[in-house]
Amino acid sequence: MSEIQHLATPFSYSSAVVAGDYAFIALHRGFGDDFETQCKGALDGIRQTLERIEVPLSSLVKVTVWIKHIQDLPAMEKLFTEYFELGRYPARMTATTEFYDPDCLVMVEGIAFCRS
Length: 116
Prior knowledge:
- The protein is α+β, with helices and mostly antiparallel strands.
- The protein has helices at 35-52, 73-83, and strands at 5-8, 14-19, 22-29, 60-67, 91-96, 106-113.
- A hairpin with a 2-residue loop joins strand 2 and strand 3 (22-29).
- The longest helix has 18 residues, at 35-52.
């Protein structure tokens, strides 16, 4: 059995856990006054987390996007076309939720394939 790698945070979760050929990416959120800024921040945060384990963003195979307002779905769709190659998007589930932090508009979590 291979070793499990945790990318710790100061909180009670890891930003990523690498187990075998997969990295499980925990919640990432962006900060800012609008949805686009926060969504870009979340996706950039996931990219930075994946860079720490030497995995490109294109290796993301599954994401769950939690948004506060369903009206932000078209903006999220557009942003995904900026971060991923046409036709090579990760599998995705999007849902609405209320967040603990009242200023939070979006959070993203995912799974990446790590084997070369």
